[in-house]
Amino acid sequence: MSDVAPGGEIRDVDFADALGERYLSYALSTIMARSLPDVRDGLKPVHRRILHAMHELRLDPGSGYKKCARVVGDVIGKFHPHGELAVYDALVRLAQDFSQRYPLIDGQGNFGNIDGDNAAAMRYTESRLSPVAQAMLDGIDEDAVDFRQTYDGEDREPIVLPARFPNLLANGAAGIAVGMATSIPPHNAGEICAALLHLIAQPKCSTAELVAHLPGPDFPTGGILVEAPESIAEAYATGRGSFRLRARWDKEQLSHGLYQIVVTEIPYQVQKGRLIEKVAALLEERKLPLLADIRDESASDVRIVLEPKNRNVDADVLMEQLFRLTELELRVPLNLNVVDALGVPRVMNLKEVLRAFLDHRREVLQRRSRHRLAAVARRMEVLHGFVVVYVNLDRVIKIIRESDDPKAEIMRRWKLTEVQVEAILNMRLRALRRLEEIGIKKELDTLGAESAELEKLLGSERRQWSVLAKEVKATQAEFGSDTPLGRRRTLIGAAPVAVEIPVAALVEREPVTVLFSQKGWIRAVKGHNVNLADQKYKEGDGPRFAVPAETTDRLIVFGTNGRFYTLAADKLPGGRGQGEPIRLMIDLPNEHDIVALFPYRPGFKLLVASNDGRGFLVDGEEALAQTRAGKQVLTPASGARAAICVAAGGDTAAFVGENRRMLVVDLAEIPEMARGRGVILQRHRAGGLADAKVFAAAEGLSWRQGENRTRTEFDLTPWRGARGAAGRSVPQGFPRSNRFG
User: Fold this and answer.
1) What's the pLDDT tens digit per position in 426-471?
2) Would you tell me how many other CB atoms lie within 10 Å of the CB of residue 405?
3) Whether residue 124 lies in the annotated active site
4) Higher-scoring residue by pLDDT: 42, 300
5) What is the pLDDT of residues 145-202, one digit of tens each?
6) Could you give the 3-state DSSP secondary structure of residue 662?
7) pTM for this predicted structure
């Protein structure tokens, strides 16, 4: 009885080892057979198999189109055992002139568009090879590259294409493998050829010299490259980096001083429909206050019309805002991660990529030359046999008619080779009339000269590079900048100057009233004419501040700890609810409270003071804080707290103490400081400073009496004194709250 289990051999294997082995196999398969392009022809296996299948179907540029379903069927049936949709998607991309800088497939039918619409089903579309693909396949039938068996062993496929066209850089590539990725933007073929010619002439040149010929990517959808030259050079020198690409736009003048912005080119691989939807959504969310409307007037070309809010909107500021918020500007990554000629994936720099392409082309040249040399030798051998037939035609015919073994007889009598005799015996009778000695000798001379030239070529490295240079020049002439296809589309621009976008440009300007409650809840109610009596608060809470402002304002908050905080008015919760605690927006300690809340205005000054009577003037710019933690300006003494923050618009200051004494001083006596404890403003024997006010002496000192009454005192002589004095008792009728109102 056999010891082998019914299911076959069973072995105990560590799970981690088995998993690691299988995952490594998967990773290698993903890297080598799916995601990374070959540095020599710039193709992934699926693309290479599509082109080879179309070549076998004889779908040359001069032939008719065939259904894409036929091509996809051949690809998945013979070469690529994957899903038909995956193969068709790859075929479609090779035919899209907005995806490929130099399309490898000439498509007929609906192959999708820049809006993001999908191609029609493969049964409706037709395709054939483009002239660029023809250049990629040039010499494939002349033993230019190695072939291998297909997945089922019934056919053969090329490992790499001869690639007379520098496809890797010209069309670029993108892919994500396991643990690595590649991202190569498209470039201009004419500029690539110029760099190749320079590398052939100067093999030891630097990458910077090559960048002079290849200044940057050239995208099929155009746009403006606004990356700094030094960043571009660094990216090509290391093989890693990114390029900043912007849409191309123009300003069209309309009547009555109005204008509109027209976007004519959008960045690479940005779907126009999705881009317009994004801008429309930002408009709906009121995040583009400078933009009134967006329209798509595109036909075969791109024409996106942007209508500004009014004629006073700066076009550069509007576009800068759109560049920051939408895909009208993006960064295109560069990661020259490719599979080299030895099958090793690695990141190359620009010079290494160009050198790998030239080395491949040199190997192709050598293989094609040897293939042609062998073909010439075979033909010359046959022609020498034909000469024998021409000279001895009657004898040869007699031997063929009478001999039992004419092949052996002819070989023995005239010492011919088996190849020569086979050619003679397979000759048609009608060919005998063409066996003219002069014609045969002329062809022999021509072939002899060609054979000698091929021998010299294979024996001279200098001759090989010379031939390669001529090939590159021919490619440059066929696909270079002087052709409609090769003309540069992406403008090389200067790195843009930073455009400062004012806060008002980022937010739609609307009037609001900021409500701040006694318990520290804040909200913004639309409009300025707000009926405060109708506003509701939480139970046990009530109104404290009601500040008119606009959504574009920055709000200044002053705390009893002497710190200033800044809030954006547009970020405040709306007035429909009861707001949010202000302590969630700023880092105000629990033991401290809010003293003042007001909108920032450029050029204003503030008078700040603590309840111990010390203070100073401060520039309003010093009150702007950049973080939640705020900015320390007034530093109260131990046991004191900040109590006063009022606008310093006038020439005189009045102070009132809790002891109901008032002092009026010239504002010039109070120093202006950036931060600190301050100077003594008013001395107090008992209590502290209750309130302060800055006013113009000519307009008098006013304070509120009751709900709707105000009193103004013009003769302030009794209360005038030097800074730091104690002052005199307040005027009769001054509010018992000891505040000016």
Assistant:
1) 877 666 666 677 788 888 999 999 999 999 999 999 999 999 999 9
2) 10
3) yes
4) 42
5) 999 999 888 899 999 999 999 999 999 999 887 778 899 999 999 999 999 999 999 9
6) strand
7) 0.72
Instruction: Say how far apart CA 214 and CA 193 lie, in whole Å.
Output: 9
Token digits of residue 258: 């109005």
| Structure tokens belonging to residue 217 | 């990517």
Which residues, other chains included, contact 85 with Cβ-Cβ below 8 Å and sequence gap of 6+?
Answer: none
Rounded CA separation 28/51 (Å):
24
Q: Which of 124, 151, 537, 600 is catalytic?
A: 124
CATH 1.20.120.450 corresponds to the domain 248-327: no
- Helix (H) / strand (E) element for 605: namely strand 605-610
Distance separating alpha carbons of residues 322 and 329, to the nearest angstrom: 8
Question: Strand 173-176's sheet: what is its strand order?
Answer: 173-176, 181-184, 329-335, 240-246, 224-225, 491-492
The DSSP output letter for 118 is P
Encode pLDDT of 480-531 as tens digits: 988 999 999 999 988 877 666 665 555 667 889 999 999 999 999 988 888 8
- The superfamily (CATH) of domain 43-162 is Topoisomerase II, domain 5 (3.90.199.10)
Domain borders along the chain are 43-162, 248-327, 370-465, 504-729
Contact predicate 367/145, CB 8 Å: yes
DSSP 3-state of 728: strand
Q: Mean per-residue pLDDT for 103-109?
A: 96
Cα distance between residue 446 and residue 441, in whole Å:
9
The topology under which CATH files domain 504-729 is: Neuraminidase (2.120.10)
**Core vs surface per residue 370-398: b (16+ CB within 10 A) or e:** ebbbeebeebbebbebbebbbeeeeebee
Burial group, residue 225, by CB count within 10 angstroms (0-12, 13-18, 19+): buried
